[in-house]
Amino acid sequence: MTDKVYVARHLVAGKWIDSPDQNMIVSPFDGKAASSVAMGNAKITDAAIGSAVVAAPSVAAMPGYKRAAILNRVAVLIEERASDVGRLMARETGKAIKDAVAEVRRSQDTIILSAQEAIRIEGEHVPLDGSEMGAGKIAFMLRHPIGVVGAITPFNAPFNLSCHKLGPAFAAGNAVVLKAPPQAAGVVTMLVEMFVDAGIPAGAINLVHGGSEIGQQIVSDPRVDFITFTGSSRAGAEIKARTGLRRVALELGGSGQTIVHADADVGSAARMCARNSMRLAGQSCISVQNVFVHRDVLDDFTQEAIAEIRKLKVGDPLESETDVGTVIDVPTAMRVESWINEAIKAGARLLVGGKRHGAQLEPTVLTDVKPDMKVVCEEVFGPVMSIVPYHSFDDAVAMVNAGRYGLQCGVFTRSNVLTMQAIRTIRSGGVIINGTSTWRTDQLAYGGVKDSGIGREGPHYAIRDMTEERLVVFNM
After folding, report:
1. The pLDDT value given to residue 24
2. Residue 221 main-chain phi, psi, to 5 deg
3. Contact 459, 113 (CB under 8 A)
4. Cα–Cα distance between 92 and 183 in angstroms, integer?
5. Angle at CA of residue 41, ends 36 and 44, nearest 5°
6. How far apart are CA 329 and CA 281, in angstroms?
7. Residue 2 confidence (pLDDT) above 80
8. Measured between alpha carbons, how far is 166 from 470 in angstroms, rounded to an integer?
9. Pair 196, 225: CB distance under 8 Å
10. Which residue out of 103, 117, 193, 285 is catalytically annotated?
11. Contact criterion met (CB below 8 Å) for 389 and 293
């Protein structure tokens, strides 16, 4: 099958515009051209922000049912175009096509949930009779659109994470300036096309392509009222420094921590950890990376996990049987390979994998790792899992909490006592009982603590961030 090169352009004030500077996205698997992208500049970005500023009052004035109707039309288009979008995602990013199509279809939930939230944004009554000064008065809090939302999305789940920004932002009555990831610009453009085809007002969504300089301009512009960003902790810290008193939602890195206790269903836990460490070639903030396993079940867990990993098919992302495609590019694969080799030289033991073929990495399992190894303490963002033994549950919790990240943590145990201990003591944005760190569904409050970020995704929770509360008091 011959795939055409997709053309990705900017959307500003309801018009698709080109630019003289073009970038070609090529498949990390075979180097074939996937998309030709119009690259932005300061002038185009300024126009996109200005368009959002002009459109924001009219978007805010739209009744919720009209915003919901547009979002529901987008959801229909997602289902109709899922195969085409998924194929382009596999070509642009090297993601296995079955995972790419699944990401697009799953995103329908995100948009439908956003549509449902658009018609139930509510405030609350504030009782004032508790004080002499307030007696006889009426007060309540209302939520209003925040204005202009600047949204920056990553390559690893380009369609779904863009839905998690566009859906709630529009549902809440905001205008948006969206910067697409350079590595998956075509996929995000296809999503924005759906919003246009569904009848979104001109200027309600503006799309700009480009590198970090475009993101920096959006973040630094005082006309942008709110920033929602998904990406690295380093970039998140830079954004926080640039935004001053303006609000942000930062969904950042993680180290995929999961605890497997001695009383767990070890076989099930091992299979889940194995698959969720290698799926998407490990390129998810919540991919299983560090598994803390009780010494009593260490051998059984390790054998089961390796057996499951050996079943995975590594290869061409466009083949339906492929389980693990490539990472995003050769330099990333080389970086992950260097971290593996660095760990081995420092005493880690390689149990399976470890080799690189271009942008493709063999699923890799390490043991005898140390806390200061990059494969443990940093976000690998590749198909690498480290197995770390522990003696007591307290030891496991302490190792989890010692890390700089706190996105999600999986805990496998049959003990109600240990379950409650985990919930109370693990410092993480989410604790998944009898599941891995990777589990997520789109209505959850998803986000982290520590270096894993600020704020929460999930349409209901994102809308809380993308609206501002206003106090109203009646002196009767």
Report:
1. 97
2. -75, 120
3. yes
4. 7
5. 95
6. 12
7. no
8. 23
9. no
10. 285
11. yes
Nearest to 227 by CA among 239, 235, 217: 239
Hey, which bits of 56-132 come out as E strands?
A: 124-126
List 92, 193, 251, 457, catalytic entry: 251
Cβ pair 80, 111 in contact under 8 A = no
Query: 367-381 burial by CB neighbour count: b if 16+ within 10 A, else e?
Result: bbbeeebbbbbbbbb
**pLDDT in the model for residue 1:** 52
Phi, psi of 253 (to 5 degrees): -80, 175
For tokens 């979002």, the residue is 71
Claim: this prediction has a pTM higher than 0.85: yes
What is the per-residue pLDDT for 259? 98
Q: Would you call 113 exposed, middle or buried from its count of C-beta atoms within 10 A (0-12, 13-18, 19+)?
A: buried
Closest alpha carbon to 35 in 4, 57, 62:
4
With H, G, I as helix, E, B as strand and everything else as coil, classify residue 410. Answer: strand
- DSSP letter string over 351-378? EE---EETTEE--EEEES--TTSHHHHS
166: its two tokens: 């566009």
Nearest to 408 by CA among 391, 429, 436: 429
**178-195: average pLDDT:** 98
- The owner of tokens 């997520």 is 440
pLDDT at 239: 97
Bridge partners of residue 242, in order along the sequence? none
Write the single-letter amino acid at 265.
D
Calculated CA dihedral for residues 89, 90, 92, 94, nearest 10 degrees: 140
For the stretch 107-152, pLDDT in tens is 999 999 999 999 999 999 999 999 999 999 999 999 999 999 999 9
Cα distance between the two ends of the chain: 73
- Whether 285 is a known active-site residue: answer yes
Rounded-to-integer distance, Cα 231 and Cα 236, Å: 7
pLDDT value at position 122? 94
- Is residue 390 within 8 Å of 294, Cβ to Cβ? yes
Quick one: three-class SS letters along 229-296?
A: EECCHHHHHHHHHHHCCCEEEEECCCCCEEEECCCCCHHHHHHHHHHHHHHHHHCCCCCCCEEEEEHH
CA distance linking residue 244 with residue 247, whole number of Å: 8
- Is position 251 annotated as part of the catalytic site? yes
